[in-house]
Write a structure and sequence with these properties.
- By secondary structure, the chain is mainly β.
- The chain has one domain: Jelly Rolls.
- It has one helix and twelve strands.
- It is globular and about 40 Å long.
- 27% of the residues are buried.
- The N terminus is likely disordered.
Length: 176
C-alpha cells in the first residue's frame, strides 16, 4: 500500500516515460522527435554539463520552431528585486539565466502544457544550481503557436556543446 495520499498516487501514475537520453559524445542539442501528439503535458528532468568552450545559456525549442514565437520571464531570489519585464518574441525559452561555463553543471525540471491545438503551450521550470551562479530560479514561458500540437522538443546548447554524461528524461501525460 502506498504511503502517499490517493491524489498524489493518481497524479504520479499519469506520467509515462517517453524517452531518456544520456550523451556518450558531446553534442549541440538533446532532441526528442516523433513524440506522439496525444501527449498534452510533458515533464523534463535534466542534468546538463557544458563542454569545452562554455557559452550562452541553453534554450528550449518546440517543434523545431526557430522563429521569434517564444515569450519568457525569470523570477529569482538572488537580488533585492524581481528581474525585469518578460522577454517577448524570442527564438527559444531560456533554461538558465546566465551562460554555463566549461565543465559547469545545471539541473532543471520543467513542465509543459499544450492541452489542445488552438491554445499556446505554457511552460514553467526551476533551474539551478550552477558553479558560478548558485541560484534556484523560477521561469515561466510560452510558445505562441496555437495551431500545432507538440511532436518535438529540443534542448539546445546555443554555443559550444553539452558534454558527455548530460542526461535528460522526458515524460508525458495524456488526457483520460
Amino acid at each position: 500500500m502506498s504511503q502517499f495520499p490517493p491524489v498524489i498516487v493518481a497524479v504520479n501514475a499519469l506520467w509515462e516515460k517517453i524517452d531518456e537520453q544520456t550523451l556518450s559524445v558531446a553534442a549541440a542539442a538533446v532532441t526528442f522527435s516523433g513524440i506522439n501528439t496525444s501527449f498534452t503535458f510533458f515533464h523534463i528532468a535534466a542534468w546538463m554539463i557544458k563542454a569545452a568552450g562554455g557559452g550562452n545559456q541553453p534554450i528550449l525549442r518546440i517543434n523545431n520552431d526557430s522563429a521569434g514565437n517564444y515569450d519568457h520571464q525569470r523570477i529569482t531570489g538572488d537580488t533585492a528585486s524581481v528581474t525585469g519585464a518578460r522577454v517577448t518574441g524570442d527564438t527559444g525559452i531560456d533554461i538558465t539565466f546566465g551562460a554555463i561555463g566549461v565543465g559547469e553543471e545545471v539541473n532543471f525540471v520543467m513542465t509543459i502544457a499544450k492541452p489542445v491545438a488552438g491554445e499556446e503551450a505554457q511552460t514553467v521550470h526551476i533551474a539551478g544550481p550552477q558553479a558560478t551562479d548558485i541560484n534556484l530560479d523560477l521561469y515561466g514561458g510560452q510558445w505562441n503557436n496555437t495551431a500545432a500540437l507538440i511532436s518535438r522538443l529540443d534542448i539546445l546548447a546555443v554555443s559550444a556543446n553539452f558534454d558527455v554524461d548530460t542526461r535528460v528524461l522526458l515524460e508525458g501525460a495524456q488526457p483520460a
